[in-house]
Amino acid sequence: MEDRFQQKPALLTLSAGTKSCHIFRAPKSQEESNPNAYKPRIVSIGPYHHGKKRLELIEQHKPRAFSKLLDRTAVGPIDYFNAIASWETHIRDSYSEALHWKTSDLIEMMILDACFMIELFRAHTCENPEDADDPVFFTPWILSSLMIDLLLIENQIPFFVLRKIYALSKSSSDADRSLNEIALRFFNRALQWIDEHLQKHYRVSKITHLLDLFRLCLVGHLNIESPPPVDKELLQLMPSTNHMLLAGIKFESRKSKNLIDVVFDDGVLRIPPFTIDLFTSSFFLSCLAYEQCCHCCSKHISSYVVFMRCIMGTAADAVFSSLLR
To answer: I need a labelling partner for 117 at 20 to 30 A (CA). Which of 47, 168, 178, 220 fits?
Structure first.
């Protein structure tokens, strides 16, 4: 019996619940109501969905992306391996679940996944991309699926791995562009944020993974404390848009660089407009899941979704209800 008490957890890592742990699976409550929302459609990044048969198309392309990266620089494969292997403990501690992978397999996966992502970002942000004829990087339906998959909560690798690979593989064509910049510019075709807003995050250093970077773009400039938990009964008392209009409250579109920057002032509720589509709904779902799992991050996205769900009615209700299940 004493031996059982001394056994290490087989599923949860010892770092689970600490600040070093920031890559999670979606909470069961959310996964059960949206069973396919957190599963990648076309590409696996990290260990949680690695080896799934339906994701073989992109998996076969990753070594090719790594080969192109090697051709462009003087850094060899062993240099990449040694650089990432030195971070093995930190990599394992970043995940909430124990990774039963051999060191060599884990490091190889991290390198291939990071190189694939970096080459994809480069291909879409360079003036004269070498991979302009690459069907994986530029076929519209594949590209839209990649954008969704790369921001899934269960499809992340530590950002320090991406940074290290990017630093080793930098060439003259990269100039002084940061990894943040090429990643944000790649996704901005879907998010359509203002360039000035993106530029504020080009040099931000405290980032845990790609999803965290984009969530930070939404909440980073909001210098307010995370709101305290709200009683569900109080939320049910929040009036809908129709009731607010009857009460004399006015609604206006707010020109803001941030779509969650909602302001109520002098009887006017100003809300930045945004489009609900497959990309944004998937992004919000992963942000909600991340905020539920990560105890050290704010709950701004969760508060925003709850707020919008309360004030909107009819067709919009169905969309936000699916996010809150």
So the answer is: 220
